[in-house]
Amino acid sequence: MNRATVVKEALDLLDEVGLETVSTRRLAKRLGVEQPSLYYHFRTKKDLLAAMAEAAMAPHATAPLPSPGDDWRAWFLENSRSFRRTLLMRRDGARLHAGSTPTGDLDRIRRKMAFLVASGVPEKDAQMAMLAAGRYTVGCVLEEQADAGSPGDEDLPADVPVIDDEAAFEAGLALILGGLEQRTAAPGTACAAPPPS
Q1: pLDDT at residue 155, rounded to an integer
Q2: In sequence order, what are the residues at sequence separation of 6 or more whose Cβ sits closer than 8 angstroms to the Cβ of residue 130?
Q3: 84 and 140 part of one domain
Q4: Which residue, among 172, 55, 49, has the nearest Cα to 99 in the 3D structure?
């Protein structure tokens, strides 16, 4: 048993039982070891959850980085879509990720930021847009994954609209991008005030 095996089995357990029910006791039983032996690899359950969150993000964390000639708008959209797809790969993926610190991803984050700035996006706006898009994506997936355990659409009253999660995500993402494009078109300016009447 090594650290990678523990994390893999912990993620498989997450998919089977959900985040609320993942415990070191269950994980030790699954691995066929005594619970204290897990502490050789992870001092606390919090450490284990952090390693699980990092491993769960691998598909997004290994996606190609932007190249200098790429269109920053298309990249910004695809980066958020990739993040969403990755969160959706695991049961309770958004809950697992929420609040985690991307310590292993800092170089990639810096390179993404440098790409946006080199593309003409003001640095502060690039930082806030990446933060907003990331938190928006986590929030969308939290709702989407919570809905997975809710009553089906057929149980809803007729006057309650059915939400297409992907379409709703795309609409909100387009609004974030639109706001960033406005800021980029007029760098250094805040939102314009309405003209005097």
Answers
A1: 67
A2: 109, 112, 113, 116
A3: yes
A4: 49
Q: In terms of C-beta distances under 8 Å and separation of at least 24 residues, what long-range contacts does 165-171 make, across chains too?
A: 165/140, 168/140, 169/84, 169/137, 169/140
Segments forming the whole domain that contains residue 118: 58-185
- pTM to 2 decimal places: 0.85
Write the CATH number for 131.
1.10.357.10
| 103 and 155 inside one domain | yes
Residue-wise pLDDT for 133-165, tens only, equals 999 999 999 999 998 765 555 666 777 778 899
Q: With CA atoms as reference, report the closest residue to 113 among 98, 128, 132.
A: 128
Boundary (domain end) residue, out of 39, 55, 71: 55
DSSP-derived 3-state class of residue 99: coil
Burial 53-64 (b: 16+ CB within 10 A, else e): bbbbbeebbeee
Residue 66 is given by DSSP the state P
